[in-house]
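Narrative of activities, Objective 1.

The group set out to show that a structural description can be obtained from nothing but a protein's sequence at a throughput compatible with the screening campaign. Below is one input-output pair from the validation batch, recorded exactly as produced.
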Amino acid sequence: MNVTAATTPTPGRVLGALALELAPGTRAAQDVVPQADAGGLAALVAADLAAFAPEAAALDATLVAAHFAPVELLRPGWPLHQELWQLAAKAPRPPGGGVRIVAFGSHEGRLPGALSPSPEYAGGPLRLVPFVLDGDAAVAARVSARFEADLMEEGMAGAGTALAAQEAFGMQVEHARYLTVHDLCALTAMQYEHAGLAPLWPVLETALLSPGREAWLDPPPEPLLRYADGVARIALFAPAAWRERHAPVVGSPADEPGAGARLERLYAHFEARQRQFASLLGAHGVAVEFIHCRGDARAELAAPPAP
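Output recorded for this entry:
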């Protein structure tokens, strides 16, 4: 499954994460690192990135010493990275200027701002430690191009970095590598395809990479959904309207033996699919509205919201 290539989400910044793949059946003992230990992890990450793309050493490196689920990073506007950058912008620069390595860890168990991982998405085999590289736009563009070209394939974390993350979070790390947010999009797209969620990915991709555009999920037997203006509007059908719309897929005429029970099962599956898509969109920070459709459903979804 393809993911649209794009330049750095914001000029002058490179957004990415240290991706930690846990051993099967294990989870981290803690999701945040105390402030006193955060700087060491950030320095190791910055050194790895500079070894991969030497110009990265000319950019500020900011990291939050906490790990998150992919859905917490992949949200329209990249809010977690944006929060990280905004907090770093307030940090003092060293005397005489120069490049900074800024690390945010916990104080009395709490992280600053909106940087705390959500307990709702704890666990999972892939955990992500976000970072931002920031500085001269031309340098960031070159670093971003290098990262987008090769980081996913070649950007393994150093052994010392992987060990430091393992010890800091109390986890069993099988693989530690670096990803840009676009790499993470591509990886998530493949995972959703394997999970039977491929039809929804173009909508999520639009919300993440081209939020000003429109995207539709249309062909039956999938739910009917329109994304525009930051909102995903999902059509709700009464059973009769659903049967009419899905007649070519549903097949069995109503007078066939057992057809009624079969249609009820298919309709229940359809409703469950709607809830699944709405839940996943919400997890990615996309607002969802359910629209009761009684006529031309596409036109009703495209109509301006009622005042």
